[in-house]
Design goal:
The protein has 230 residues and is an alpha+beta fold. The protein has a single domain, classed as Lipoprotein localisation LolA/LolB/LppX (outer membrane lipoprotein receptor (LolB), chain A, Clam), CATH 2.50.20.10. The protein is built from six helices and eleven strands. The protein has an eleven-stranded antiparallel sheet with strand order 6-5-4-3-2-1-11-10-9-8-7, with helices on both faces. Helix 1 runs parallel beside helix 3. The longest helix has 19 residues. It is globular and about 40 Å long. The protein starts with 15 loop residues before the first helix and ends with a helix. The N terminus is likely disordered.
Length: 230
Amino acid sequence: MKYARNASRPRAFGSRAFARWLLVSTFLWLSLGNSGAAPLPENPTNLEELMQAMAGTPGVLADFVETKTLALLDAPLVTKGKLYFIPPNRMARIASEPARSTLIIDGTRLDLDDEAGGNHIDLASNPVARTFVDNFIVLFNGDIEALRSRYEATFQVGEDTWQLHLVPRSRALAKMIASITMRGDVSGMKSMTLRESGGDTTETIFESVDSNHSFTSDEVEQIFRQQEVR
């Protein structure tokens, strides 16, 4: 795979903007991958019931509207695009507004492409990137004990809604992420708020979510070749 624009200025995983993008996108992938695959209990009373109901899906696609409020900017940044998830380990986040960008996770391959150029990471040989991804994979696996070992998890339920609030236990993750809050109802997850340790906030709203999408071979080819043909 070639990235002509990236040849003179490769971006390391340590870039804060790149790390933020990976963290947000990975968590969206894992959360949406579980969302709405089965009807949620009418009145889930604990996290175990919620996680059990959110397990398993042939594929997910959704529109997203992401609003980032940054301390250094007077106005929030709004990004719109689509998310694609194919179990067990393929995800694409393709933004269309205000500028086109893509983040693709395909097994152990992670590709990022935007106006600044492209970047390729082999997760199998990059322990830093792998650690960030692993911190979120516990939700996808539905492993309650692993989730609680990595996060302080608080689950609340209302009459027709639920909320899951997560605070990282790991010092490394806590240096970037203060908390993650997911909200939903009986149909699945509706929004996610990610608060960074520095005070910046990313609020994501999910729309037109199809949690039981069976991707055709043509769809898979089109989605996961986008990074190569640019």
